[in-house]
Amino acid sequence: EDPSLERHFRGHRDAVTSVDFSPNKKQLASGSMDSYLMIWSMKPQMRAYRFVGHKDAVLCVHFSPSGHLVASGSRDKTVRLWVTSAKGESTVFKAHTATVRSVHFSSDGQSLVTASDDKTVKVWTVHRQKFLFSLSQHINWVRCARFSPDGRLIVSASDDKTVKLWDKTSRECIHSFCEHGGFVNHVDFHPSGNCIAAGSTDSTVKLWDIRMNRLLQHYQGNSVVNSLSFHPSGNYLVTASNDSTLKILDLLEGRLLYTLHGHQGSATCVAFSRDGDLFASGGSDEQVMVWKTNFDAADYGDVVKPQKYGSSVDGTHGTGSEMDCGIHHKKTKTQDSGRTQEQQEEETSLTNTLEHIMGQLDVLTQTVSILEQRLTLTEDKLKECLENQQKIIQSKTS
């Protein structure tokens, strides 16, 4: 079954910038350029709450793991923590000196990480409501920052075209990923914590293994990627793009699974619910949409041994390193137990062969994408040489 539109929320008076489900899925929070935070009830006929407090566009929202708090960041340079009751009370965090683009709670709910146009990533304590420290190595606006599932790492994405990985304890930048050709709008950790995905204005989504710091997958779209979200199984990724579409990528097969059209104008944000049954999207059309995921539950309930992948990113041929990034392969469902041992063995060996071929294909895809990148670089260099030659000839003749 394909994903289907389940609910439709109208109430914002300007583009929606951010969406997030409460952990129990009873509420959905959204932020908008209209400077309001809205909390929508997932129960039909229940009223929505409009939270007033920010003096300018609300650019990001995130529920705490307990669901009792919602954090929001705004163009008014502040971060607010809201209690999700009808009163809509909030406390203000001030430390950023420019627009706040991203807010994210750690999985234990104790810390908050924020990212801003002041080029810094900041970490706060939630209970003492205190600013703790800044991470400042980006040289342009920081669009997004996320804690790893275990809370030990932070990843950030910036208009300086880099994705940076930080150690929360030592506060040092462990690695910078510089493969994007445009501003990096969004980044997040895979549920396993072993890899990250980033979407960029260069219309690509890239996945890196952060243990080897190597590029695993590269999806080329045809429009700016504004936002992305991993399915909790870790097997799928949903993206929101400027061409108004939402795309669901199958990370096991390394291919595009669905393209969904719902928004008029850019799709600005997207997020799966904590259990993965639903995902929500927001757009410049002021609408918030809730979609039923409808993937076959059996596809992501089973966890099978990870597949061997050759690592071909350094151009040398694979060492057969494990690409077990928590992306697990689907189990074939055994229907009738009346089949002979031989048939089952044949099927298993066939499945293994197919999985091996898929792995080899992935390696080829990665290799081709790297070769393409190298070709582009070579072409650029060649162009530069020719231009320089022209200049030399011109200066000699003049």
TrEMBL record:
Highest taxon of the source? Eukaryota
Key word Coiled coil present: yes
| Keyword Repeat listed | yes
Which SMART domains does the record match to this protein? WD40
> InterPro entries of this UniProt entry?
WD40/YVTN_repeat-like_dom_sf, WD40_PAC1, WD40_repeat_CS, WD40_repeat_dom_sf, WD40_rpt, WDR55/POC1
SUPFAM superfamilies recorded: WD40 repeat-like
Q: WD repeats located where?
A: 9-50, 51-82, 93-134, 135-176, 177-218, 225-259, 260-292
Q: Where is this region: Disordered?
A: 310-349
PROSITE patterns xrefs: WD_REPEATS_1, WD_REPEATS_2, WD_REPEATS_REGION
Protein's GO biological process: cilium assembly; microtubule-based process; multicellular organismal-level homeostasis
| Pfam families xref list | WD40
Which UniProt keywords are present, listed alphabetically?
A: Coiled coil, Repeat, WD repeat
Q: Name one GO cellular component term.
A: ciliary basal body
Regarding protein family, the annotation reads:
Belongs to the WD repeat POC1 family.
Q: What does this protein do?
A: May play an important role in centriole assembly and/or stability and ciliogenesis.
Q: What is this protein called?
A: POC1 centriolar protein homolog A
What's the source species for this entry? Answer: Rhipidura dahli
Q: Gene encoding it?
A: Poc1a
